[in-house]
Amino acid sequence: MDVLQAMGDMGYSGSTFFRTSDSAYLIKSIPRRFEHSFFKKELLLPYAEYMQQNPASLLVRITDLLETTHRSIGELLGLAPSHHIVMENILYGQEHDAPEDGARLKWESWDLKPISFFYPERDVAGGALATEATKSKLADKFEGKIKLTGADATRLQQALDKDTRLLANSNIVDYSLFLVRISAADGSDPGGSQLPLPVGPSQERETDELIPLTQPLCSPPISPTWRTGILSSDGTEVYRAAILDFFWAKHTLHAKVMTGLVRGYNLIDEQGPMSITAESDEYRERFLEMCRDFVEIEE
């Protein structure tokens, strides 16, 4: 079996993805110099310190930053990336969802950003100038609700407030919420499946004991959390979530150029900022509002 399995191009950034053979980790290329330079030189140490101090953070756990030691022909021609990150895969377990009793689980996932921003592919000429393949790479739309107890909803909001404040203070925009919903395919209680699921909120432990998904990942926090799974208030679903793609900093040269271009366009056709040209505090507020709208509190 190959150690890494290719997953292809999964977005506008041109990044390529691989997953480990056990699906526990993803390897993502960071091809754009201004992004990997910002992460390595400005964000890496504050991020590492923050993650040590906040084990319940929703920021995706990046375990390694890999950089080539020598310039290759592919890199010089822009055909091969020089930097990769290794991060946890919160879809871990989906590939192994084959319980002996045949009661499979239903896995759904969304990559979510505030849809109230200006997206040229969607908003210029009503989207007629962009192909469906291009528009399919825009942020997903989540139509459902995350059913939480009041206590879980409060903890979620507190974590999002804290995480996004770190990103806003670093002048970062355009990050997304990757949301996973796991439920029984027939609508029954997913707790009956053979897939290891987290304990419910009422069973939350006060220790730092490792809580595996199927096997331990790196630095697991106190259980349960959004990386291991949060049980819905009615016990029929499990949710996981992570904040992804926090590499676009507004003060980098590339970001400044893009902001100038969009402002110039808005002189002709006022559409407002894009997600990559908004101010970091504005992006944070719209992101938090989006997340609040997903939550439905049920005691």
Description:
It is a single chain. With 299 residues, the protein is an alpha+beta fold. It folds into two domains: 4-88, Phosphatidylinositol Phosphate Kinase II Beta; 105-297, 2-Layer Sandwich (Phosphatidylinositol Phosphate Kinase Iibeta, Chain: A, domain 2). Helix content is 27%, strand content 22%. The protein is built from seven helices and 13 strands. It has helices spanning 33-53, 73-76, 120-123, 132-135, 150-169, 253-266, 280-294, and strands spanning 4-9, 16-20, 25-29, 62-67, 83-88, 105-112, 146-148, 172-173, 176-184, 230-231, 237-244, 248-249, 295-297. The strands form four sheets. Strands 1-2-3-5-4 form a five-stranded antiparallel sheet, with no helix packed on it. Strands 6-9-11-10 form a four-stranded antiparallel sheet, with no helix packed on it. β1 (4-9) and β2 form a beta hairpin. The protein is globular, with a radius of gyration of 20 Å. The protein starts with a strand and ends with a strand. Mean pLDDT is 79; it is low at 191-222.
